[in-house]
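**User:** Here is a favour to ask of a fellow structure person. Please take any protein you like and set down a full record of it. No explanation is needed for now; the record alone will do.

**Assistant:**
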Amino acid sequence: MSKNKSWRKRLLIGGLSALGILGIAAAIGAYLDPFNTQFEDVEDAQLYTADSFDVPRSEVGELRIMNWNAKFGGGRIDFFFDCHGDRVLMTKNEVIENLTGLAQKIKQYDPDIVFLQEIDTHSKRVADVDQMQWLLDHTNLNYGAYASQWRASLVPSDGIGHVDSGNGILSKWSINHAERLALPLIGEQDPVTRYFYLKRNILRARIEVPGDTPLWVANIHTAAFAHDGTKSRQIEIFKDELARLDEQGKIFVAAGDLNTIPPGSTHLHNFPDSVCEVEKFQADDYRSETGLLDSLYEKYDAAIPLEKYKADNAPYFTHTTDKNGFWNRKLDYLFTNARFKPDSGMVHQDAKSGGMETMPLSDHAPVTVEMAWPPG
C-alpha cells in the first residue's frame, strides 16, 4: 500500500457505501444502534478476575505502578492505519507471541497496578483473544476493570469486522467499583464516521489496597486525530474528575496516554507522527497544546517530575511510530495527589532502563513509579 493512500478508503467507513449501509447509518438515532457502538454517559465497567490467584501481600509498604499503551498486542507489525503496510488482522500465534512479550516485561517489573490503553477483548484483529483475561492469567495480577473505547459488532471496511478495544486496569488487589465515564466525541466528523469511530472515556475504579484507605485510579486515552479542540476538552474533563476526587479526600493515581507533550519539550527528534500524507489523518499538533498539562504538574506529583524532563527530554520519551528508530516524544503519564517516591519514576525504553527492550513490544514504552503505602 502506498503511503499517500487515503485513510478514507482504508479505515473505518471506506466500505460503507458499497455495502449499502449509509442509508441505515443516516437513520441511526437515540433508540437505534444496529452495530452496538454507543454508550451511556456513565456506566459500569467490565470486571475481570484471573483464573488462578497469586496471593498478594497483606502489608504493603509501597506500591509499584505501571502505565502502558499496549497497542492491542500488535507489537511492530506493519498495520495499514500507520501507513507502514497492509496488515489488518493478526493470527492467534502472533497475538500470543506479542502478549507474551508484554507479560514478560510486566512480570519483570512486578507492578501492583497496571494501567493499559489500547487493549482488546473481543476483536477480529486479535483473533478474538481476550487480552485482559490473558494478561491476568499470565502475570502476577489478579483483578481487572475494562472500559470499551472502540466497539462495534461489525466495522464494514477492509475486513476489520468486529472490534472491542479500550482502557484497562490490572491489580493484585480486588476492584469492587469501576465506571466508564464518557468523553466528548470529535465534533468535526460526519455522523457516519462518528458512529463507527472511537468513543473516548475515563475508566475510574477503586482498588482495595490493604489498610484503611482505598486507592482510586483513573485511566484515560485522549484523541489523537482531532483538530477541533476535542482533545483539549477531554483533558479538561479529566482534570475536573481528578479535582473532584481530591476535594473528596480520596487518594488517587491517574494515568494514561494524553497524546500531548509536556511543557518544556525542546529537542524533539524527527517529530512528525505519521507517514500518512492525508492531512485529515495526521495527528493533532502536540506542540501547540503543551500548556494543557501545566495545571496537572502544578497541582499533583508526577512520576517524571517536570524539572527532570526539562533538563533532558530524551530519556523520558515514551512513543514513536518508527520501529527502526528511537523514541521521539513523551505522551504517557502518571500523576497522584499523594507523593511518589523520589527518583523512582522510569521510562523503560531499552535494556539499560529496566532489563528488557520494549521497542519491539509496542509503539509506546511503559512508565513505572513507586509510592509509599499508606501515603504519609
Summary: The domain at 7-373 is CATH 3.60.10.10 (Deoxyribonuclease I; Chain A).
